[in-house]
Amino acid sequence: MTAAPDLPPLSLKKNEERRIRAGHLWVYSNEVDTAATPLKGFEPGQQAHLLAHNGKPLGTAYVNPGSLICARLVSRDPHYVLDRSLLVHRLKVALSLRERLFDQPYYRLVFGEADQLPGLVIDRYNEVCVVQVTTAGMEAVKAQLLEALDKVIHPAGVVLRADSSVRKLEGLETYQEVIGAVPDQVLVEEQGLKFAVSLQQGQKTGWFYDQRMNRARLANYVSGQRVLDVFSYVGAWGLQAAAAGAADVLCVDASAAAIDRIQANAASNGLADRVATLQGDAFEALGQLRAGQEKFDVVVLDPPAFIKRKKDTKSGEQAYHRLNQLGMQLLRRDGILVTASCSWQLPETQFRKILLQSSRHLDRSLQILERGHQAPDHPVHPAIAETDYLKALFCRVLPA
Predict the structure, then answer these.
(1) Given 70, 251, 342, 395, which residue is catalytic?
(2) Any idea what the CATH number is for the domain that residue 115 is in?
(3) 129 a catalytic residue
(4) 169 inside domain
């Protein structure tokens, strides 16, 4: 790692360094002593020495004067700057964890702040990586990032998915870029199955590695059962259920492209005879199934985040309530509900309360059998609540 050059200072107001010293990495604009170090003096993505009010160094950060989170710490050692050398070091540290956890190169290689690389997500698909850059500071070192990634794992191809809506908060344009050899579809291997996904047209970075451990748990509940998989995407939950011995599986998704991929993935894994599909809005499809008096032994609900911002809390909680109530109505008398939330703003205690209210509204009893979490390639930074986002509950729903 190279020594930091002379960087401009960014000073905090008195006592505003407490959160940083306690482990957080973010600086909010109202915490900066703008009289001493005006934010307007910085270019988006410019690096700075972060200083406490008394002038003591807190580390090196990159700055975006136009963002509410106006700075993010990249090193607590003020001698280091975010450059190719530090990126190589951090990528190697991240890689060592994933190689310890998984015997095949399919995982989230970098999970932002939790891997000390704020503003960066990298998913690995064997020889291809999807890189998601969401901040001006990480965008400023993009060329060095790609060099570091090449040095550490030598990918044959890279897809830059700089198309997240979060970039708008940083004043960044959105785009996609393909570097090297990237096929139209790549194969993901999970629990002995292979799934074809598109890294350019697929959701987010193409695959949801965060649920892998929870999908593995599903095998304990589905043998000989009828399974409904809602928000199926390319069939990750549904095909795992079929492979684990489910009698039949119905996968529901709103996307015609996703439905096509579910069918193709089922066929390629020899599961087509037990996997059916239904295209449509999840809430409407659940209503149709209920109207048709369909019943299932296991219902899996893995929706997108209904609460993306704090102001979405009320409507999001209502959506979780409605979705889970619909799911419970489709269960047989002694059924299993596997339900998830990736909204970090929804605490597990509140999620459980929503499930309880849904079950009581239907005059059902609820038992929580297992509590799932995001997979360990999505580590949690204990000072940053936003990194602890995924909740998956395995529930037994019984008559009252």
Answers:
(1) 342
(2) 3.30.750.80
(3) no
(4) yes
